[in-house]
Design brief:
The structure is a homodimer of 165-residue chains.
Chain A lengths: L7 E12 L2 E6 L12 E2 L1 E4 L6 H13 L2 E15 L2 E14 L9 E5 L11 H12 L4 E8 L2 E7 L2 E2 L5
Parallel strand pairs in A: 1-6, 5-8
Antiparallel strand pairs in A: 1-2, 1-4, 2-3, 2-7, 5-6, 8-9, 9-10
């Protein structure tokens, strides 16, 4: 989730980089009034004027991590419905990158072994898409309906699903 | 393209239904001040609050054609950059549907044999994505940069491409 507040439509990107030490997660400890405060999320941000989702995620990964993605792939479309907010997020994974990891203004960048992700404080819907990332090779569309912090409904590829998180 | 005017970000869906007599196209003859006036396009429209792209395209196909889609699939993400406008379009194809075709308020619905599409007045970028629909089985991301009616740049999956339309 983007952290923007108030009614509106937002378009964002989100990427998980997979390296030898695990998955690169951003522990959001630094920003004030952050909807993601203390949660572990991926790298990404808002589409700017003139950007495709790919333009945006390349820029955001570079700005937030100092890394250049050499190979990345669209894996999912996430629709977040949170009260009056609609947010569409383009979800990517990256398995080849170059450069040196830098310090990020928005939190601490940490490599997390894949099997430990479920034990971290992450959004309940994020657990659902991590499962899909491990199960699906094609691009999925996951709709996540939150009321405040609580995930109340989910749909996959247009069909409502039951879930336990 | 959605036909909305002025600066802003828009999220839309677009679907081509494939039936025994060809591809269902909407000949936009009816709306005043229509950016798509006299062009042939697909069926679709704007995402409403609380909708995923799948919710939106099911609703739009039903509203505009009277048909219910029994099987449809996300095929591409289109990024239109047109002067101050940014529009993200989720492109679908449908190969199974039921119901009776109705009259559409926005134009005439016509089944067009697939090999005739290139001969119709369609947007130059639409010719590019029709080629991709025939070549690609995975979800592609196509960015189309227009200055007024002219396609000036295109990128596929984040990389600039040369094109002839």
């Amino acid at each position: 989730m983007s952290g923007k507040e108030g009614a509106g439509r937002y378009e964002t990107t989100l990427c998980y980089l997979y390296g030898p030490k695990g998955v690169l997660m951003l522990h959001r400890t630094k920003k004030e009034n952050d909807i993601n405060k203390d949660k572990y999320i991926g790298v990404g941000g808002h589409l700017e004027h003139g950007e495709s989702p790919e333009d945006c995620i390349k820029r955001e990964v570079w700005e937030e991590t100092g890394l250049v993605m050499d190979s990345f792939r669209l894996r999912g479309i996430l629709t977040f419905v949170i009260d009056d907010i609609d947010e569409i997020t383009f979800l990517y994974t990256c398995d080849a990158f170059s450069g040196d990891l830098k310090t990020c203004d928005e939190g601490e960048l940490i490599w997390i072994p894949e099997d430990r992700i479920d034990t971290l404080p992450i959004w309940p819907g994020d657990k659902l898409f991590f499962r899909l990332l491990s199960e699906r090779q094609d691009v999925f569309s996951l709709k996540l309906h939150y009321v405040k912090d609580e995930l109340v409904d989910a749909a996959l590829d247009g069909k409502k699903i039951d879930f336990v998180v």
